[in-house]
Amino acid sequence: MEKKNHREPLFHIVKKDEASLPLKMLTVALTVLAALLVSALFINFVTKLDPISVYQSMFKGAFGTSRRTWITVRDTCLLLLISVSLTPAFRMRFWNCGAEGQILIGGLSTAALMIYLGDRIPTAVLLIIMFVVSALCGALWSLLPAVFKARYDTNETLFTLMMNYVAIQIVEFFVDFWDKKQSHSVGIINMNTMGGWFPKIFGQQYILNVLIVVVITVAVYIYMRYSKHGYEDAVVGESVATARYAGINVPKVIRNNVLLSGAISGIAGFVEVAGISHTISNETAGGRGFTAIIVCWLAKFNPFTMILISAFIVFLDKGASQISSDFGLNEYASNIITGIILFFILSSEFFNNYRITVHKNRKEGE
Amino acid sequence: MKKLFTALLVLLMVFSMTACGKKEEGGEEGYNGPKIGVILVGDENEGYTYAHILGIREAAKKLEIPDEAIIWKYNVPEDQTTYDMAIDLVENGATLVISNSYAHQSFMQQAAGENPEVTFVALTGDNGAPSGLNNLKNAFPQTYESRYVSGVVAGMKIKELADNGALVDANFNEEGKVKVGYVGAFPYAEVVSGYTAFYLGIRSVYPDVTMYVEYTNSWFDLTAEATVGDDLMSKGCVIIGQHADSTGAPSRLQGNMENNTYGFTAYSVGYNVSMLDVAPDVALTSAGNVWEKYYTYAFQCWKNGEEIMTDWSEGYKTDAVEITPLGKAVAAGTQEAVDAAVAAIKDGTLHVFDASTFTIDGQTPTSMVADAFSDPAFTPDTEALIDGYFHESEFRSAPYFSFRIDGIVELSSN
Prior knowledge:
The complex is a heterodimer.
Chain A: E1 11-15, H1 21-47, H2 51-63, H3 66-91, H4 99-117, H5 123-152, H6 156-178, H7 207-226, H8 228-238, H9 240-245, H10 250-277, H11 288-298, H12 303-327, H13 331-353, E2 354-358, H14 362-365
Helix pairs in contact in A: 1-13, 2-3, 2-12, 3-7, 3-8, 3-10, 3-11, 3-12, 4-5, 4-6, 4-10, 5-6, 5-10, 7-8, 7-10, 8-10, 11-12, 12-13
Chain B: H1 2-18, E1 35-39, H2 47-62, E2 70-73, H3 80-91, E3 94-99, H4 105-114, E4 119-123, H5 128-131, E5 136-139, H6 143-163, E6 178-184, H7 189-205, E7 209-215, H8 222-234, E8 239-243, H9 248-259, E9 267-271, E10 283-289, H10 291-304, E11 311-312, E12 321-323, H11 334-346, E13 369-370, E14 382-383, E15 385-386, E16 389-390, E17 408-412
Parallel strand pairs in B: 1-2, 1-3, 3-4, 4-5, 5-11, 6-7, 6-8, 7-17, 8-9, 9-10
Antiparallel strand pairs in B: 10-12, 13-14, 15-16
C-alpha cells in the first residue's frame, strides 16, 4: 500500500452549530444519568453503601426541613450575589479574582458599624448606612487594581489576588483589635441587642437577604442588557480596539465597571455579616469569591442562569455534608461524589459545543 | 441553560423521590427517642477530633446509647455553620448538643439562648458561666497534668543524652542550658498553660533547660507545624513538644533524623494521638486527654435527666488525661519516673504549677491574679496562687494560666 507521509489522527474535534434545545436537554439528562451511575458505582464499591439512600440523603441535606431549605436559599443567594458582582468585570475580560477581598472589606466595614453604632442608632437606619458604606468600601478595594489596569494595563488577576491577602491581613488585625479575650475571634456581634442584624420579616430570618439579592441581580441584568454603559462594557470585552474606534473611553469604562463589581462584592460582605453570620473573621468570604468565578463562567455571564448554577453548587455542598453526617463518610468521599457530578456537567457543556469526528478511513491510509 | 438545569434538578429530585421507603441508615430517622448531636471541627483524619470520636463511641457503648441516637456533624467550621448545625440538630430531636472547638462557642451560645430546653456544651470554651444561660456548659480536661508528665519523659531523655555525651554544641545556649522547642498554635492561655506545664515537667528531671516557643497561628496545619519544627531544630532544640493538632512536626523530625540534616537527632513529644506511626524513631510520647471520661459523665447526666455541671475539669485523679504509650527512643527508667509523677499528682503531693519551682521576672511569685471569670472587660479577677501553687482549671474549666515564666522564650507571635 502507498505510504502517507503523515498519520491522520484517530479523531478530531469540530465546533458544532448551536444545538437545538431538546437536543441540549437530552445531552444534559444523559450526562446527569451517567454522573449518577458512575457515582453509584463509586458509592457501591468504595464505600459499600446503597447509592439510592446516599442520593436521598443529599436531597434531605439541602431540602429536608423547611429550615434547611431556607439555609440553602440563603447560601444560594449569597453565592449568586457574588457571581453577579463579578459579571460587569468579567464581561469586559477584566479577570477580577479579588471578590474574596472585596467581600472581606465590605464585611469588615459592616462589622465595624455594628460594633460602634449597633446600640446607638435604630437598626433600619443603620442597615442603610451599612449598605452604602460596605458598597463604598468594596468599590474602594477594587479602585487600585482598576486604576492600574486602566492606566498602565497591569495584570489585574495578580493585582486583585494580592489585594485579597492585604484584606485578609487587615481583617486579622481588626479581629485581634476587637477581641479582648486573646481568642482570635470577635464572637457574635451584639448578640443580646441584635443591633444591626437583618430583621425577621413575616417571621422569616432570611427574607431581606433574598430581597437584596433579587433586586441587585435584576438591576445588573437590566444594566448589562439595556443600558449604554452595559453595552460599552460588552464592547470593551469583545475588542478594546473596536471600543476605541467607536469612541468609547476605555479606561473610564474599565474603571467604572470594576468599581461596580467591587461595590456589589462589598454588599455581599454586608449581607454575610449583618444578615447571616453577625461576626467577622478571615473566613467570612470562605472561598465564595472563587467559587463565584466558576458560577459566572458556567452561566456565560447570564445572571438568571447563575441562579440555577449557584443553587446547584450549594445543593451539592449541603448534600455532601449530609452524607458525611448520615453515613460517617469523610469529606473526601463526599467530595469525590460532588466532583464526579460536576465533571460530567462540565463535559456535557463540551459535547453541546463540539462534536468528535472519528476518521473511518484511517485504516486504509496506513 | 436555564431549562437544562431545571431538568437536571428535577431529575435529581425524581431520583430521590423514587428512592423513598428504603431503609435509612443515618441517625435522623427511624429512631424517635431523644438524641445527642455532636459538632466536630474535623473528622477522623484530624487527631484532636479523632480523640473525641473515639471518646463518644466508647461512652455511648458503655451507657448502651444506640448508634441512631447520635447525630454527627463533621468538619464544621468555626462560623455561622456552627449555629446552623446546632439548630438543625435541635430540629432533628437532639436534646444535648456538644461542640468540640473553642471558637464554636459564640454560635453555641446563640443557639442556647434560643433553645432553653436543650443543653449545649461548648467544649474547651469559657462562656458558660459568664453568659448567664443555664443550658450552656463548658468542659476542659486538666491537660496541663499530662503535659507535665510528658515533660518528665522529655526530661529523662535529655538527662540520658547529656549523661552519654550525645549532645552537640548547638544543643546548648550561651548559658550552657539545653535547648527545647515547642510548636504552639496560638499565644492563648490554653497554650501558655500547656507549654509551661511541659517545661516544668522537664525541669523536674533536668533543671538546666531553656525553651523556645514558636507559633503557627493555626490549630491544625501540617506544613506550618513541619516548618516550625524544622526551624526549632535548626536552632538546636533537641526536644520538640507541640500544642498543635497535626503530625507535621514529628514527621519532619523523623525525616531529619533519617537524613541526618542537622548532625543530631531531635525527639518529639506530640499531642492528642501517638506519633509513633509517623515518627517511630523519634517520638517519645504524646500528652493527651481521655475524652471518654467527660462524654460518659455528660451522656450519663443526659440519660438520667440530670443537669450537666457548668464547668467540668478533671485530670489524673479520675484518669481523664493520659500520655500515649512510650516510644522505643525513651530513656531507661522513664516508665518508673512517669509512674512516680502520676502517683504524686494523684495523691496531691505534686502540684504542676508549684510556685517554688519557677520565677517570673526573676522573682518567685507571691500573687497570681488570673482572669477566671470572663467579665465583659476581661480583667484579672481571681487570686489563683493559694497554698503555694497556682490553681489551674479550678475556678473555671478552660485554662487561665497565662503568665510568662523565666526560661521560656516566645520566638514569634505574628
